[in-house]
């Protein structure tokens, strides 16, 4: 399947609000952005706990 077709199918799934699983095909840039966002969220969870570390 051509990359353009894959991207069109992927976009259709997103537009239809279907769940995208980690092993599903997705454009490389989308995957990179998603990994960056997940990493930032994980980092904020850790940093958010730092002030409470001394209290606990």
Descriptive overview:
By secondary structure, the protein is mostly helical. It has helices at 3-15, 28-55. The longest helix is centred in the C-terminal third of the chain and has 28 residues, at 28-55. The radius of gyration is 17 Å and the shape is elongated. The N and C termini lie far apart (55 Å). The mean pLDDT is 91.
List the helices and strands and how they pair.
Elements (H helix, E strand, L loop, with lengths): L2 H13 L12 H28 L1
Short description:
With 56 residues, this protein is mainly α.
List keywords for this structure.
2 helices, 56 residues, mainly alpha, 73% helix, elongated
* Strand runs, count: 0
Helical/strand content category: mainly alpha
Into which percent range does the helicity of residues fall?
Answer: over 70%
Question: Which radius of gyration do the C-alpha atoms yield?
Answer: 17 Å
* Strand percentage: under 5%
User: What is the ordering of alpha helices and beta strands?
Assistant: HH
N- to C-terminal distance: 55 Å
Count of separate DSSP helical elements? 2
Globular, elongated, flat, extended or rod-shaped: what is the shape? elongated
Oligomer: single chain
Q: pLDDT under 50 segments (min length 5)?
A: none
Q: Compute the average pLDDT.
A: 91
Largest sheet: none
């Amino acid at each position: 399947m051509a990359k353009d077709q894959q991207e069109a199918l992927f976009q259709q799934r997103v537009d239809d609000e279907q769940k995208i699983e980690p092993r599903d095909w997705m454009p490389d840039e989308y995957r990179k952005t998603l990994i960056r966002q997940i990493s930032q969220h994980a980092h904020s969870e850790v940093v958010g706990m730092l002030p409470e570390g001394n209290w606990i």
